[in-house]
Amino acid sequence: MIARSEAEEHLRVIRSLMERATIYRALSAPSALVGGLLSLAAGGGLALWQRRQGAAEISSGTFATVWGFVFVVTALVSLSLIKRDAVRRGEPFISVGFRLALRAMLPPTAFAAALTLAALVRNDVQSCVPWWITCYGLGLLAMGHFAPCSIARLGWAFLAAGAASVAGIFKFAPAPQPSLAVDTPCLLMATTFGLFHLIYAVCTWPRRAR
User: pLDDT tens-digit profile of 4-59?
Assistant: First the structure.
């Protein structure tokens, strides 16, 4: 059972995060821009590499390596922005708000990680793409209690795209071979993690007040 003092501290932090929605947008917009550009570059780069190699398929390991790099770089950029803002405001980097955000993102992130590890063993990582999109949307929506409405809208967009891809609206289906075709998975990744994040960055980029 959570102690009363800890519960009060959580409520105080949630209230503080809601009041600083503008700061939240200012931090997340550059991260979204980096993630969107990297995702578009990764999707286009994989397709270009496939054509230059003259191969009909791309290996599951290559697919996982490229998108893993995109994830790591985007996460590092986001963490560096959060740390810089915490230093500027004289607050600890691993604050209560930071832990609340991680706790909210943990269930869908853990599910996606477990699914990816199992797919790596099967050499079938591309089949995880619809679930990556869905889990990311669920993670964003889980932060809705202390994040601005723009984060929730982005989460709903990812959740809708993920649900549609899982249901087969985009005609996504894993190939029976160990290596899978690159076009449909990369198209989904570029459209969601690329285009969605760029649209979010443009709409929420911090602007000077008049």
Answer: 666 666 666 666 655 555 445 555 788 899 999 999 999 888 877 777 776 556 77
Measured distance CA(92)–CA(17) in Å, rounded: 15
Torsion angles phi and psi, residue 111, rounded to 5: -65, -45
CB 141 within 8 A of CB 152: yes
> CA distances (Å), 108 to each of 65, 111, 185, in order?
21, 5, 20
User: CA–CA distance from 12 to each of 8, 38, 76 (Å)?
Assistant: 6, 36, 27
Identity of residue 185:
P
Q: Which two tokens stand for residue 57?
A: 């398929």
Asked whether the whole model's pTM tops 0.85, one would answer no
* Radius of gyration for the alpha carbons in the chain, expressed in angstroms and rounded: 19
CA dihedral 111→144→96→115, nearest 10 degrees, is 10
Residue spans of the domains in the chain: they are: 23-204
